[in-house]
Amino acid sequence: WVGTQSTVLGLLGDTTSIDIDYIAAQDFVESVKRVQEPYKKANRKFHPDNTVITLPTGQKIGDGNLALIAGPCSVETEAQICEVAERVKASGATFLRGGAFKPRTSPYSFQGLQAEGLELLKKAKAKTGLPIVTEIMSIGHIPLFEEEGVDIIQVGARNMQNFELLKELGHIRKPILLKRGLANTLQELLMSAEYIMAGGNENVILCERGIRTFETSMRNTLDLAGVVMLHKMTHLPVIVDPSHACGHAWMVPQLAKAAVAAGADGLMIEVHNDPAKAKCDGAQSLTPDQFDELMGFIRKEVEFFGKKMN
Question: Exposed, middle or buried, 237 (CB in 10 Å: 0-12/13-18/19+)?
């Protein structure tokens, strides 16, 4: 890794026979450290500067740029996704989220419109210019996602340790939004990121979306301490999904505000034009008016903490 102030060389594999004192004695060596963590490419010790993901359309994620990703849990109709896209953009969102392929706990629940959903996302993008963030479920869908112009490919919490999928996503160059599994440690999350980065794709965005604890009043427990710790452990940008973290729309604004204060590089918020009739996760979705009100506060918060919105 070559930075503005220094160059970092990382040795992979069995380094037990390496003489640290001999290396440190060289004039051009400032310091030598043994890195114990198994993740190397995602490790801040190898990459001190924050990684910034820049899309061809100019939007940035990381290092002071607050990304605002908003949209419905699932794409239902052209009218629905286009209306939500236009409303969230007007409120300040810089990315459009929407599920075309939906992983559901029950096989009888709505599974998404799949390929048709990607087409509708493209139409919403054409109307608003918002880059698309949507979840992939299978290796076989990668060509379709590239063909349909998905801007950021999301790996959901249930697929965080789908290692064969992660390996294949390492061979493309699109940004990958990797969600933390509901029962996974931070190191396990970073090891999953390592799978993608080891394949050559270093455009990885981490997402904290709540973990499963013994608490039953909420869908999950949002781990904001994990966001702070991840920024110490890795150079990769870290965003927060408060919607999946709690499962209650009335809680989302406070958790979103707290996430920005904790240093999150972005927010991923579910917004639906009619949550009561949503086919998926309506209980945790904000209305466009609620999202607009939240963005009014977030803009002030971003200014206070010295960040900037795309």
Answer: buried
Cα–Cα distance measured from residue 211 to residue 25, given in angstroms and rounded to the nearest whole number? 46
> What's the CA gap between 103 and 156, in Å, rounded?
8
Query: How do residues 197-211 score in pLDDT, each as one tens digit?
Result: 999 999 999 999 999
SS3 readout for the chain: CECCCCECCCCCCCCCCCCHHHHHCCCCCCCCCCCCCCCCCCECCCCCCCCCEECCCCCEEECCEEEEEEECCECCCHHHHHHHHHHHHHHCCCEEECECCCCCCCCCCCCCCCHHHHHHHHHHHHHHCCCEEEEECCHHHHHHHHHCCCCEEEECHHHCCCHHHHHHHCCCCCCEEEECCCCCCHHHHHHHHHHHHHCCCCCEEEEECCECCCCCCCCCECCHHHHHHHHHHECCCEEECHHHHHCCHHHHHHHHHHHHHCCCCEEEEEECCCHHHCCCCHHHCECHHHHHHHHHHHHHHHHHCCCEEC
Q: How far is CA 168 from CA 18, 22, 136, 163, in A?
A: 33, 39, 12, 9
| Cα-based angle 110, 176, 137 (whole degrees, multiple of 5) | 30
Tally of CA atoms within 13 A in the half-sphere of 96 that contains its CB:
31
**Pairing status of strand 176-179 against strand 204-208:** parallel
d(CA 40, CA 12): 8
- pLDDT tens-place string over residues 122-171: 999 999 999 999 999 999 999 999 999 999 999 999 999 999 999 999 99
